[in-house]
Input
Amino acid sequence: MKVTRYFPTLLALPVFCLQAQSDFSFGEAQQMLTTYCAACHKGKTALAKFDIERYQTLNSVLAEPRRWTTVLNRVRDSAMPPKGSPAPSLELKDKFSNWLDGTLRKSACADGISPGLAFTRRLNRSEYSSTVRDLLNLHVNAGHALPADGAGGEGFDNAVETLFLSPIHAEKYLEAAKTALGYAVKEPRSRKVFLNTAPGAGLTPEQAAEKVLAEFLPRAFRRPVPALEQQKFMDLFRVAQKRGDSYDESVLYAMQAAMISPHFLFRVESANNGREPARLNDFELAARLSYFLWGSMPDKTLSDLAAEGKLQDAAVLREQVARMLKDNKSTEFAESFVEQWLGTRELGRDIKPDKKLFPEYYDEEIASGMRYEPILFFQEILANNLSLLNLIDSKFSVLSNKLAKFYGFPNKDLRQQPKHYDLPENSRRGGIMTMSAVLAVSSLPNRTSPVLRGKWLLDAVLGTPAPPPPPNVPELQDNKAGAPPKTLRERLETHRQNPVCASCHNRIDPLGFGLENYDVLGRWRTEDSGKPIDSKGVLPDGSEFDGPDQLKALVLKKKELFLRNLTSKLLGYALGRGLTLEESCTVDQIIEKLEKTDYSAHTLVNEIVLSIPFRYKAGTVANLPVQYTETSNRD
Ligand code: HEC
Ligand code: HEC
Output
């Protein structure tokens, strides 16, 4: 296998994230910790075993990047010091955070950005289905009977952490392969692709099978298959022939074996046993690319480019990205990424609007229009290389006719299929935050919840998730019969008067108040419990807004947070795992490029595909990088 050596020039990559705040020193950081944290985090009795006395030198900080990443997040989120304790000024807090962030990354990126190890990873259920579809040119959902996959890494179900093979899987895979091949052999369209040679004029069954398998196996294994390996499958063909199976049956027997082989079920990357990072080989790169953007196997164009050794070329990669994003197969990527990122996959599954209160949701066309809006919107942005800031606010959406009507927009034409839709003036829509699917998954079945919507925004948009709620929090009181009814906002104000509750809810609730004008299904409303809706909010940093349009404008001002979040999520998705601290520097570099290209969607995808973590694998002898986005914060 051809593995290109790691070029020393990579070490000299400009690392933009290096600029630590020069107007702040370690001494000043220590002083801030002593003033605002020592009361609870000093000496043997330090809370959460975070003892600031253990860190007398900068190196002692750098030696525990995970812990200090937690410190950074807690301070940045205003979760520490807790509400009620003396807190640093906003300015000091920012200086400290920027200093710590810069310092941690500077240290992590000092030696250039190193990639993760090569991996061996099972195809997840939807990748499996799509791969069988493309391998056999067969439109059945071959993976429907397989067990569902968990989520790991950056929260996606293609994460290496969750994809191992259980015995129950093995049996189901055999079933699935048999069934799919059984259908495909009867389908002329499929046969043309995977079984296009029969014994006949001039060919013995043996020769015909040889020819068929020589085409099938490299497609199934996504790499060239050496003659010796191919012979093992020919042996199976011969066994079947001997016992009297027909030609078709015998070929299928060998193919079935290929389809339960780890080389098919797993994406196998060869280990890099050196010390230096090495490039993936061309076929491994083709597979990473196609599973990233199509959730399926490479097509002929990609495999041919890999075989010709052209795929490593940056210009070729960019061209392929543009081609792949235009292809319909990218809907699958958009669906998988967007639904997991925004949480909208749960709509209609774990999260169902109340049937009596919101019967409109139970119109199938409305429900599916809602579900597909964010997916098709994202795909439209990618396919046409639009600005990523459209995700925050936009002048268009992708709507079915029924959904447009549901939003109260004029009918433009009478088609059922969702399509690009230019929003009317003052539509109060645009961007993902005001899409009904999003507003519905961040609601309770019977009422809106500013808390859940605020939490959703912090998580999906700003990438600064709220800490989980403490146990035993009393539920919100329902409006009592007889007493004057209160709006949800009024009921929530009560708990924000308690400083313990306010430490979190001051961050969470105001964002959600900005969206109170949307009901559970995301329809515009002006009243709650007979009173006008108050959609004003103040964020912990003092910024104020009134209503969704101003809320979006505020988020646009914080677009670095959004872009960092989106880029981290997409890079994590592309790599199929959680990011390392060093990879957060890759994220910084990408953001820098985005700023220079008007936030072009292709820049984002291209830069991910061209990045070192995506194209290289670490040597097994090298030190392994530290996870940055892991939730566990114990060293
Ligand atoms: C009034 C007491 C108090 C003060 C002051 C305080 N903390 Fe905390 N801190 C806590 C408590 C209680 C916990 C454990 C509960 C939790 O994790 O929220 C904690 C947990 C933490 C953790 C999580 C440790 C881990 O690894 O899980 C970090 C980091 C932290 N604090 C940093 C700070 C910093 C930095 C400051 C000063 C800017 C600070 N804290 C000030 C009470 C305090
Ligand atoms: C550490 C952060 C934190 C603290 C402290 C906290 N909460 Fe929460 N709270 C949350 C989060 C996050 C949620 C969202 C719940 C979820 O994820 O399901 C929530 C949800 C709620 C809800 C449900 C909202 C709804 O629409 O039904 C109520 C009520 C609530 N909290 C009240 C309180 C009260 C009262 C206190 C103080 C005694 C408190 N919380 C303290 C984080 C916090």
